[in-house]
Amino acid sequence: MKPIDLGEIAILTSPNPVTLVCTELPDGDTNLAAISWWTFVSYEPALLGIAMLKTGYSGERLMATGRCLLTVPSVEIAGPAFRCGTVSGRDKKKAAGFGIELQAVEGSKIQAPLHSRLIVDCALQERIETGDHYFYICRPERAFADEGKVGLFAWNGYGYLAPAIRADKG
Questions:
Q1: Which residues sit opposite 153 in a β-bridge?
Q2: pLDDT band at 156, cuts 50/70/90?
Q3: Contact partners, residue 44, CB within 8 Å, separation at least 6
Q4: How many Å apart are CA 32 and CA 23, to the nearest integer?
Q5: Domain presence at residue 1
Q6: pLDDT in tens, 105-122
Q7: For residue 47, which phi and psi values (nearest 5 degrees)?
Q8: Residue 131 lies in a domain
Q9: Nearest 5°: phi and psi at 84?
């Protein structure tokens, strides 16, 4: 074994499911933030956790509205989903700018990418300071899936996005 740095840890633990965190902008449009990790925090009560940089606009919007959609984008929007992690929603309306078609989500004011494998509608429960990130604990209230869609994973840290292939299916 040899010593490695944090960046190499991210590469060696790949792939991670890509998620577009959808939040409501002040004008009612949807902001999209690309993250490559979220986790179950609890099953009873049901809680999910996501980490985002303290300086991130999506965290501000989540705090302002108390709501977000966690979505797993499908392969149809791999390029645009990747680009969502390269600019701030403060500076660009990512859905329109990157050609991501949005859809209404039952019971939510926030829209989600049309090409999503999974959509989880969440209410913010708590924010915890964790160094240069905040950890947002959210309560999932509704979830929707299209199992016919192939979800994206981040490989080599966040080097590129592609589906994962099951070992037992070749």
A1: 17, 162
A2: confident
A3: none
A4: 7
A5: no
A6: 999 999 999 999 999 999
A7: -145, 140
A8: yes
A9: -60, -20
DSSP characters over 49-92: EEEEETT-HHHHHHHHHSEEEEEEEBGGGHHHHHHTTTS-TTT-
Average of per-residue pLDDT across 124-150: 97
In contact, 23 and 31? CB cutoff 8 Å:
yes
* 122 domain-assigned: yes
Which conformational region is residue 129 in: left (phi greater than 0), alpha (psi within -120 to 50 degrees), or beta? beta
Range of the domain at 14: 6-165
Residue 89: name the closest of 38, 22, 160 by CA. Answer: 22
Name the token pair of 95. 């859905």
pTM recorded for the entire structure: 0.91
Instruction: Report the alpha-carbon distance of residue 121 to residue 144 in Å, rounded.
Output: 9
Q: Residues 78-88: pLDDT tens digits?
A: 999 999 989 99
Answer yes or no: is 141 within a domain. yes
Residue 84: CB atoms within 10 Å: 26
CATH of the domain at 53: 2.30.110.10
When divided into structural domains, the chain yields a total of 1
